[in-house]
Amino acid sequence: MNVKPYAERIRIRGLVQGVGFRPTVWNFANHCKLLGAVWNDAEGVLIDAIGCKSAIDRLIDLITQQPPPLSKIDAVERQPLALLDRPAYTRFEIIESRGGEIRTGIVPDAATCDACLQDIHQPHNRRYHYPFTNCTHCGPRLSIVRAIPYDRATTSMAVFQQCKACLAEYRDPADRRFHAQPNACPACGPRVWLEDVAGKALHEGSDKEPLELAAKLLRSGAILAIKGIGGVHLACDAGNEQAVATLRSRKRRYHKAFALMATDLAMIRRYAKVSDQEEALLKSSAAPIVILRQGGDETLAPAIAPGQRSLGFMLPYTPLHHLLMGRLARPIVLTSGNLSDEPQVISNNAAHDRLSAIADYWLLHDREIVNRLDDSVVRVMDGDARILRRARGYAPAPITLPDEFRGTPPILALGGELKNTFCLMKDNQAILSQHMGDLENGATIKEYHRSLELYGQLFQHDPAVVVVDYHPNYLSTQWGQQMAEERKIHLESVQHHHAHIVGCMAEHGRGLDQADVLGVALDGLGMGEDGALWGGEFLRVNYREFQRLGYFKPTAMLGGAKAMHEPWRNTLAHLLSEFAWDRLSHDYGELEIVRFLNSKPIANLQQMFERGLNSPLASSCGRLFDAVAAAIGICREQASHEGQAAIEMEALIGHEFLEGQETGYGYRMEWIGGQCVLGWQPLWHALLKDLRRDVASGVIAARFHLGMIQAVTETALQLCRQQRLNTVVLSGGVFQNRILLEGVSHKLREQGLTLMSPRVLPANDGGLSLGQAVVAAARQLNRIA
């Protein structure tokens, strides 16, 4: 019986380019004995399929059930293809990409797959020891792309003409390197070399290959600049204390922990504890830095992570790193190639220019890095992987929002000042940029503007709305205001903590018109509706608006911005807000912290406090953490990086200080005037008494954390009852504290409340731009309706 031919055009949306999607479809279509074609265009992948309907149904099942490893299908749309519209297909084929309006995504860079690892370790393979081996399942993506559709001509691999053997792979749909845009081999692809400070190659005329020489230099204590997939790193032997100390000094990074790279999991376990969940993260295609608990039979240089109980480890994620680490017996420091607070360098010239006073040798290659990608950072907390920095391996994978956001006009949200990201949004798709860094740095600002322009071109995104933070002094706010004025487009301002909470709601797929939530936003600083500085907030939130229900008692930031870098100023401000200084000095004058504060110009500081001179009030949770840390001797005089005092105070706390403690063990808070304003006078009374009794710093830190957990939990519960809310959203950089996040989450769940906290975007300001975009989208949709 003859079956009447049937035809469909099938649209596949999502991350479906540069991941081997077309050859996968080609193989499945031939298996199903279909005619037709598959091709890339600006919206994703299109398929013409001709045959019996059951075979086309089978094709769709295979595609959705067995997609390529790096792909992500968001939607499959099917429509009949009329007889007159069908091209005269005689087989199933892969055809050239077509243009149009850009709606598809770019896949993040992916760690080397197992098949490519086998290639570089097989002596008879033509890619044996080749540092740039890749296929459609792994290798560079965002780091090399200039435009989409994602084809070789639109990447930095365009300058490398493929040899006959590579071209045959590239053209063969049955080969895993079919249309692998970075495909190359030693005969036709990028090359690596090792230079000294004068730029002279060290391996000319030598049988020693560059990676073997590099490993030898690392073992000898040298500092190397190593060009990777998304930037240049600085590396040294992590077991060599002198080398690590030298790197700290030269880089001017005096306290912040260094990231580490190990050969394999067995090497990591010599120094850290690794759970099954953490192992899966380390071995994932994203290959992030994973924050692990210290613990093993061996130790590394103490200067790796001063004042901490954790280590940040990653596994090799490119063939170059695999080949280098295979020659080393212990981990290396692998930190961003920059001076402290500057963006990571990405070019060979910049590596020499900017790192000449840091590195001893340069391991470089000639594949251009188009887009800088820092290493992503992840920590497992409260049972979930939490992204602390979203960059290589994760960006720019889109975040799909609830269907109610379809119809959203193009929106550009510019983020905050610190840990900046920006966000492009249209319909229900949000594209969050990779980590940009702190916009206080001139070089970062330049990179920020370059990336904004590039993303606009990559995604053909012409914003109708630009979104900024309330704070008028943020450079991102000023740039957004200028852009809106010059382009005559709508400007939307979104309050800092509203954006924090909404970003988390959007990540969790909460519907546009679902009931309000209680948002608990704890961070350093954000401008409030009243023009004051906020940072310890309890808010009633929906996507469009919020109401402030409670907050931490505002306390002066003595010296303004200096209080963010000199924690003792926060200690003094908190003590002055709760006690008469003369009486405090009389009662506790023997305490080290009181003697220290009296060594400062106390009379002038008191006048500043009393008159509000350069001492703005802030309800900041972060500054409270700084104040307590300084009181017990942590980072008292100076904090060299954001969150340092809080991180080191958390590290003081052992499990023995937390488990099995009675409810009253933690320091108490108080509600001031019967309102939900949290005051800390009971905390300071108890803390000073503990200092007088020489209670261990770890115990004081534990009591502070437990008191904070109790205070936040009780306030949230009271407000949920008053407001009849059943969902609590926790966000803000302070919730990157594992003890606080887990403690608050556990207690609120015990009371039957639904909890949400960030996972795929950072709780810190790295997730701010998504929240800004979503608030603006909700408001625009409301206006349209």
Q: Biggest β-sheet: count, sense, barrel?
A: 11 strands, mixed
Shape descriptor: globular
Determine the mean pLDDT. Answer: 93
- Total number of strands: 31
Query: Proportion of β residues?
Result: 15-25%
What fold name goes in the CATH topology slot of the domain at 192-377? DHBP synthase
Structural class: alpha/beta
User: CATH top level of the domain at 192-377?
Assistant: Alpha Beta
Number of helices: 23
Helix content: 25-40%
> C-alpha Rg, in Å?
28 Å
CATH architecture of the domain at 192-377: Alpha-Beta Complex
Low-confidence stretches: none
Distance between the termini: 54 Å
List the helices and strands and how they pair.
Blueprint: E1 6-15, H1 21-31, E2 35-41, E3 44-51, H2 53-65, E4 72-80, E5 92-94, H3 114-121, H4 164-171, E6 192-195, H5 210-219, E7 224-227, E8 232-237, H6 241-251, E9 259-261, H7 265-268, E10 272-273, H8 276-282, E11 289-294, E12 310-314, H9 319-325, E13 332-336, H10 348-355, E14 361-365, E15 377-381, E16 384-389, E17 399-400, E18 411-413, E19 423-426, E20 429-432, H11 442-458, E21 465-469, H12 475-487, E22 490-494, H13 496-507, E23 517-527, E24 533-541, E25 546-552, E26 555-556, H14 568-578, H15 581-588, H16 592-598, H17 602-611, E27 617-620, H18 621-631, H19 644-651, E28 670-671, E29 677-679, H20 681-692, H21 697-723, E30 727-731, H22 738-750, E31 754-756, H23 768-784
Parallel strand pairs: 2-5, 7-14, 9-12, 11-15, 18-21, 21-22, 23-30, 24-27, 25-29, 30-31
Antiparallel strand pairs: 1-3, 1-4, 2-3, 6-14, 7-8, 8-13, 9-13, 10-11, 11-12, 15-16, 17-20, 18-19, 19-20, 23-24, 24-25, 26-27, 28-29
Helix pairs in contact: 1-2, 5-9, 13-23, 14-18, 18-19, 20-21, 21-22
